[in-house]
Amino acid sequence: MNKSNKETNLIKKLLADQLDKKERKKLYYSNLIEKQMRKQWKENKNTPVENEIGNKIWDKIEKQCIKVHKRIVPLELWYIAASVALVLIVGGLWMHLNEGSTPMDKYIEITAQKSRMYLLPDSSKVWMQPGSSIRFAEDFKKHRNVWLKGNSLFEVHKNMGRKFRVYIDKAFIEVKGTCFLIKQNNPSANEITLFNGSIEFNVESTQHKIEMKPLQELVYNPADAGTQLRQIENIEWQNGRYNFTQFNLEHLTRIINQMYGSRIIISDKVNKNCAFTGSIRYDESLEDVIDKICFSLNLRKKEINHEIIIYN
């Protein structure tokens, strides 16, 4: 086997996460990896997780000073005034304790300028896509509630007795410990995909609850509270990557079209059952993904009228 073929096989083993330490070192010093792979993907294994807690703390409620005015009550009205005051105090305390619209909690808001992973105070992970934002209370461990705008994947850390909720438009997802993805690209078709564990989807307007199982996807329309539940392919999620093992090309392209909203077409001359083993990072571009697949399966691509054609 010549040098070029050996290096190419090393790259294919890298895509399938099958390289040992010696092979990784050998591939690192190869000129071929620099020429062919730099434009396809960049590995960021050792990038430290940035800690942005405190960067955008936002006080929703300002403390108000309540001035108490004293006044003198004639002695003969003391009993009546005392009775009225008691009623007012009890009523005021009840209203204060049950007031839900003016919480005194301070909140932290994180906005992702680029793809990143954010670690919540309870060790839950949020894999945020560019432009997405999360908001949660400073006292997060007491009430594990997160308000999400945009697209993010959650890996929820189990905490017995402490439920975890993610609020989206007119609905929320309740979990204990699981991994799920929320996409809100389409305002009339929010997508919730469950990879493992279990979650409960709650429609606020109708109080309708839907129990979701692993490898299910729920499509939700906030306008009319409509929901649709469907099965998805067997995809494994691990540490910021979607892992595929012996996935045939036809199933793989269907998943990628769903993930990226793309239109990939396989040429009739291509074996649609050829198997792909490898991973796709959560922040990887469609172009890099297609290049990776074509390189692994010795295929080529071309783009015609917004369609990506894969051919021999």
TrEMBL record:
The chain crosses the membrane at residues 77-97. It holds the Pfam family FecR_C. Keywords: Membrane, Transmembrane, Transmembrane helix. Residues 242-310 form the Protein FecR C-terminal domain. GO terms for molecular function: sigma factor antagonist activity. It comes from the Bacteria. Coiled coil: none annotated. InterPro entries: FecR, FecR_C, Ferrdict_sens_TM. This is FecR family protein.
